[in-house]
Amino acid sequence: MDNTVVISTPPHVKSKRTTRGIMADVCIALLPAAIAGIVYFGVMAFVTEIVSVAACVLTEFVYYFIANGGFGKKCKNAGAVCKKWFKQFDLTSVVTGLILALIVPVSVKWYEVLVGAILCIALVKMFFGGTGKNLVNPAAAGRVIMFISFAVSMTAYVAPQFKPVMDDSAVFTGATNLSGFLLTGAGNTVNPLDLFLGTGVAGCIGETCKLAIIIGYLYLCIKKVIKWWQPVLFIAVFGFFAVLLSGFKAEHYTFDFSLFLPHILSGGVMFAAVFMFTDYVTSPKGVIGQLVYYIGGAILLALLRYFTQLEVASFVIMIMNILVPLIDRYCIRKPFGYVKPPKAAKKEGK
Amino acid sequence: MKAVKGKYFFGGIHPHDCKDLAKSSPLEVMPAPEVVAISTLQSLGKPAVPVVEVGSPVKIGQLIARADGPISSDVFASVSGTVEEIRDSAGANGGPEQFILIRNNHREETAYLPPLSDPSADEIKARIKDAGIVGLGGAGFPAAVKLSPKTPVDTLILNGAECEPYLTCDYRLMLEKTDEIARGARYIAKALGVNNIIIGIEANKPDCIEKFEKYDDIKVVILKKKYPMGGEKQLVYVTTGRKIGLPPKLPADSGVVVQNVATAFAVCEAVENGKPLFERVVTVSGKAVENTKNIVVRLGTKLEDVVNYCGGEKTSPKKVIQGGPMTGLALMNYEAYTHKTTSGILLMTADEAAAEEPTPCLNCGKCADVCPMHLMPMNTAFYAGAGDFGAAAKYGNTLSCIECGACEYICPAKRPLIQAIRRTKAEMRKAGGKK
Questions:
Q1: Domain ranges of chain B
Q2: Could you tell me which of A99, B29, B369, B407 has the fewest CB atoms within 10 Å of its CB?
Q3: Of B320, B409, B412, which has the smallest distance from its Cβ to A11's Cβ?
Q4: What is the mean pLDDT of residues A280-307?
């Protein structure tokens, strides 16, 4: 035996799963949506995706480089810091960049995406300590920043044209299926199949084709990255409440469950449920906490959508993210074999 | 009896079991080494007190250290010869231990206890105590203590799960010494005054299940292959549906007593042949050892001798482990000696053994999902990392942890969770135990 044996606490065998592997799986799961976005919205969607991913990764690198003293001592450590960065690079910023690109409409200019990507990684992720330390989902926060900063292009939803270069004339603002007829109570006029495939429906790059999202969802479930029931629970609760609220809106108080499908297929609900609510870092850890989180998020989203008639999934995600530490604190599981102490004994104890 | 399927418990992991490495090697007796160094700390609790002096002659099976208090076990010479030295030195885990060194004279003189024929319950209890038998599964709780429960007991459960990867010592024992294990179990049952004997065997050992099915008085329960199926609380739950309360509750409080199959075998030997516990089956496995073996090793054999007997190293190991890979002790060299609880010696290569640098916690919650005790290990690690051990114990329910290692196995960020849990437990003990 030479001197290379490793001493550690048990266990001495560990699963081959790493953070990087999980994030690579998430990237793969996002690919169908990304490709569908390019097919639907042309080359500009591709540009948005590339700019967003590159900006996220570069921002992370630059921040890491500065924070680890890459510029110190006349850049002597630069090489070592770069090496260290590559070693710890876990693809989380790629996931953030990709998600951010997929939840903006294609009408957004590339420099607007650049600003959003840089700010979301720097302000939301790296300032809080990098991977695993961010309080809110960086992609959701990035979208909110862009939504407020570039309100015009962020609300100019475009219907897919299946052409490499889009016609500008097709751009129309604020008239997605959401803010149009559905919430005004006029009923749904779009065929659910069209909503499902995203044909003829205005929307964001990655959120339009629900089929691609479902393929990604199945992949994540098979790879056990997310629990299958989490998005299902979220979407079901959301759909139910959205139908209830539509019933109130229509003022005849009949709850038309044929609106269930149009509700859950409109806008970014499915994308948010599969890829954004399930983000590990910003969701509760225990099963009880997760139930609270998904049900609470779904109800909040239904309410906010009803009142604002806007694409508010990212705001809801941020609100729920901020509540997560609180949820975690109060949702502690009871250990296996725990018996509730009898009340009489409790009083004696006091 | 016909085998039945066990219940399901939430949590647990499915590590690659690697049992094929040593599964097919039959039991083999390793010749007694030149020198043995027998630790006086062979069980949970207090170390035994030496009763021999330097220079005194000893025979195989002779008492060399007497149990100190109820939670302690007698220690017996494993070779015949003379006591060369009684020395205090660090044990394999770094704690202080006392070793009795005996030089072998190769005469194999024995000083066994008288064999018992048709013993009464009290005789069996006394014999198990006198033979220094401890739980051979890994924790090393003195077996005699478990046989005098304070609450009424109606079931004896034999633990044949062997859910630890790599280890095959119990498997070989169940296959080759089926009758002895069954008889040993009957002796234990008689000592306890129970009629109900259950043996739990994991589904990956169908040959053992078949062998135990032929006894009419033993109920065989097939356990799903899952780690930690052989954990006491999990085993009791899947075989009987009873839940054991949180510590300090014992299985006996739920009316069951759990013993390992190797313990049952040792009981049979002690009762029928008067043989005290001075040897045990050890699995030598891993991809870095030349020949993987299941060998009967004398107590206090140096690990170097064991490894050399198995043909030495094939390649340079990355980790050397005493015990199983999930709960065993990583050693820094072969200067360690086998104990009553040493179930395996594993030489792992770099691609088998985990030695990755931890990365930041992702909060993925996988540790909580796999925890068989339904705890929140990430909370423990988080607060322990910040130095707040009270909060760590409170929000992670750490004091109920059985340290099975499932959480750390599954962790994608390779966080040292067990280390945080042990530290928290130690700090809480220091602070007075209570939350």
A1: 4-23+114-273, 366-434
A2: B29
A3: B409
A4: 90
